[in-house]
Design brief:
Length: 404
């Protein structure tokens, strides 16, 4: 389609949902004056920098149009209004969605916002076991220059395969950079700042949002071009991190179930029917008189080889309970323990008068701080003041769990 129009004005466009300003290009060879910015007229658009969208320039376009955008072969030119003898700025060649394709290897384009575009560099080789990907150069129209694929803001790769595999992801990054270099042999020296950001997008179903934000990508890395040889830095693989988090969650679930089984087995072995906090014992120890119960404690101070003051293994806010424990405690260290004990009311000795007295039946040293390996249950909830039956199999006893 060849469009011709004699009215050339600035067009504000939001085609495809991307907010953008485009120069309205009339499709004829005679000059016309630009309308005030914000007035929409004309039938063909070309993406151009703001300096070229002012009334200082007279714009003309001739060539193919599709859906109001320059498409296919065409010529766009800008002539200074008050310097008719000055040579015009001219873009002649291929256009895609209003974007001038300066590089011969560029096969298409996506518009991002008023100045940024994604230039389609075509298919690229894939790592072994993956399908061919696609390389995109994120670029910007600046001044009187079109967007350049060889001076990109960054590279985007439509990739596939198991991107959680760091070896595969790094292979994609290397191949993307090598492919870009093959299309732009002098590109590394032209990239501003000497850093080239490369992102791997999962598959080809991605695009900028309505605000011009390009998805961050599953994998990101930066090529430091001024180092010899150039090397990657700032590598981040969200797919790999997500997989690691999932594996950790699965392992945590197994560990928490093992905690539940461990305390059940210890209760069954010792004949204990309830886990009780020291705080509950101090309030009324006579509720548990002569019963075997479980407590989670750590030594505060040994009074003799067979008597110690103990405190909660997992001290909670406001719980500073101290209880007398009598039994074989000479080998105890500062680590917490789960202990099966009998309750013997309160002490009548003058030095420890009114302290709750526990008789040690058996204990098991905790391996984790706060006795997490006995007390932290599935759902990451703490076991506290709970009854359970030693007659039921592991996992089937009642556990009313308490949040931390």
């Amino acid at each position: 389609m060849r469009a011709i129009n004699t009215n050339f004005r600035i067009l504000a466009s939001s085609a495809l949902g991307w907010s953008a300003w485009y120069l309205a290009a009339a499709c004829a060879m005679q000059p016309a004056y630009a309308a005030p910015e914000g007035v929409a007229s004309g039938s063909c658009e070309v993406v151009v920098a703001g300096i070229m969208r002012t009334s200082d320039y007279i714009y003309r376009y001739e060539g193919g149009c599709k859906n109001g955008l320059a498409e296919g072969q065409g010529t766009a030119s800008w002539q200074l209004r008050h310097a008719p003898d000055a040579p015009p700025t001219t873009w002649k060649g291929r256009f895609s969605q209003g974007v001038f394709l300066e590089n011969k290897h560029t096969v298409g384009a996506r518009r991002v916002d008023n100045t940024r575009v994604l230039l389609d560099m075509g298919s690229m080789p894939a790592p072994q076991g993956a399908q061919p990907g696609r390389l995109w150069a994120e670029s910007r129209v600046e001044g009187k220059l079109p967007a350049s694929a060889c001076q990109p803001l960054g590279l985007q790769v439509s990739a596939n395969g198991n991107l959680a595999d760091d070896a595969l992801a790094r292979d994609w990054l290397d191949r993307a950079y090598a492919h870009w270099q093959s299309l732009c042999p002098d590109g590394a020296a032209a990239v501003k700042g000497g850093f080239l950001r490369v992102s791997l997008q999962r598959g080809g179903d991605w695009s900028p949002d309505s605000n011009g934000n390009i998805p961050s990508g599953v994998v990101q890395a930066t090529k430091q071009l001024r180092k010899q040889p150039p090397e990657w830095s700032s590598y981040r693989n969200e797919a790999s991190q997500q997989q690691a988090r999932l594996q950790q969650d699965q392992q945590d679930a197994k560990d928490l179930q093992a905690n539940r089984d461990r305390i059940h087995a210890f209760a069954k072995k010792t004949g204990a029917g309830q886990l009780v906090s020291l705080e509950a014992l101090e309030k009324n120890p006579f509720r548990f008189d002569k019963q075997v119960i479980l407590v989670a404690v750590r030594m505060a101070a040994a009074r003799t080889a067979t008597e110690a003051v103990v405190q909660p293994a997992r001290r909670t806010r406001g719980d500073w309970s101290r209880v007398l424990l009598r039994g074989a405690i000479a080998e105890w260290d500062a680590q917490g323990r789960v202990a099966a004990v009998r309750v013997h009311g309160r002490s009548t000795d003058k030095a420890t008068e009114d302290a709750v007295v526990l008789e040690l039946v058996e204990s098991q040293r905790c391996n984790a701080p706060n006795c997490e390996d006995f007390l932290l249950m599935p759902g990451r909830q703490w076991l506290l003041d709970e009854k359970f039956s030693t007659l039921t199999p592991p996992g089937s006893f009642r556990l009313a769990l308490n949040h931390p």
